[in-house]
Amino acid sequence: MNLSTEFRRLRDLDWGELDIKESGGWPFLLQLICCVLVLGLTFAGMYWYLAAPKAEELKQARQQEEQLLRDFRSKAAQAANLPALREQVEELDGRLATLVAMLPGGPEIPSLIDDISETAIDNQLTIDFIRLRSPVTQEFYVERPFDIRVRGDYHRIGSFIAGVADLPRIVTQHDFELKPTDSSRLELSMLARTYSYQPPEASPEEEGSQ
Question: Which parts of the chain span the membrane according to its record (predicted)?
């Protein structure tokens, strides 16, 4: 085969007269080019229809593998920290139990008012009234406000306020009003609040599982 002759035949070829039925008589270089194109299109089609979906599946499998590895590392770290987390939960439960024990229940409110009255008497104060208001229900507790008004000298009133704050049950003090009386003494009016713990209500699903 003379390459120069084939190049000349290819160059002198009238492309408009080419007929696929006469491809056997085409110049060798043209036949070679057509064969390469056909093979290239065939391989491209095979890759598109066969290899490309497999490549996409492989890519997704690798992504899933990476996600599973991340999940495994996360769960392994949580498992390693589980004893410390349990210890923290137990400590928090202990603190919560201590705080709940400091919150008086409904039946203990009269006893708490007696303690406040005794604190006032110990400080030689005159008690005008200790009057309960209506309780206010919140999500996890019941707020129990009451008004207090006592009379006495400045230092004894200060000792009374400190004594109420030091009671074993939690009592918060608000809205202080201090004014003189006709007998050269002071009158203290304030709003005090104590709280009762109210456990959250169980959901219907939780009740059904019990």
Answer: 28-50
Q: Could you report how far apart the first and last alpha carbons of the chain are, in Å?
A: 94
Distances 37 to 4, 20, 83, 117, 148 between C-alpha atoms, Å: 22, 15, 67, 105, 101
The rounded distance, in Å, linking the Cα atoms of 54 and 85 is: 44
Contact 24, 41 (CB under 8 A): no
Take residue 173 and report the two structure tokens written for it.
Answer: 């003090």
Output the six-digit token pair for 118: 């005794």
Please report which residue ranges of the chain form alpha helices under DSSP H: 3-11, 28-46, 52-101, 109-122, 154-165, 204-209
The CATH superfamily of 109-197 is Ribosomal protein S6/Translation elongation factor EF1B (3.30.70.60)
Q: Could you say which DSSP state residue 201 is in? A: P
pTM across the whole model? 0.50
What are 44-68's pLDDT values in tens digits? Answer: 777 777 766 777 777 888 888 888 8
